[in-house]
Design goal:
102 residues, little secondary structure, single chain
Length: 102
């Protein structure tokens, strides 16, 4: 790492979190998930009735389940974090390691 090498740092997503949200009928993200009213790609779920219209018809303050809820393709994944870099077991032609260059 001190030499600009080392193992490649990986990025791991932080788990999705639902926003604190209720729809116009006071249903929460947990309700949408447990009732299968939406899918993770933001589409209508298996238990959503066609006569109910669209998810956006139940938005509050312009925010619908597909924006607020992880189960509906929304929510927040927050920030990502990097795994610390680790030096490889490397030596140069004079038998110096990365630690010798730090």
């Amino acid at each position: 790492c001190a030499c600009g090498g080392g193992s490649i740092s990986q990025r791991f997503p932080v788990p999705c979190r639902d926003f604190r949200w209720v729809d116009s009928f006071k249903y929460t993200c947990a309700d949408y998930e447990s009732n299968q009213w939406c899918t993770a790609d933001g589409e209508l779920g298996a238990q959503w009735k066609p006569e109910w219209g669209k998810l956006s018809d139940y938005a509050t303050d312009g925010i619908a389940a597909d924006n607020a809820c992880c189960a509906c393709g929304g929510g927040s994944t927050g920030q990502r974090f990097d795994v610390p870099c680790r030096d490889l077991h490397w030596v140069d032609s004079f038998n110096y390691t990365c630690a010798d260059y730090e």
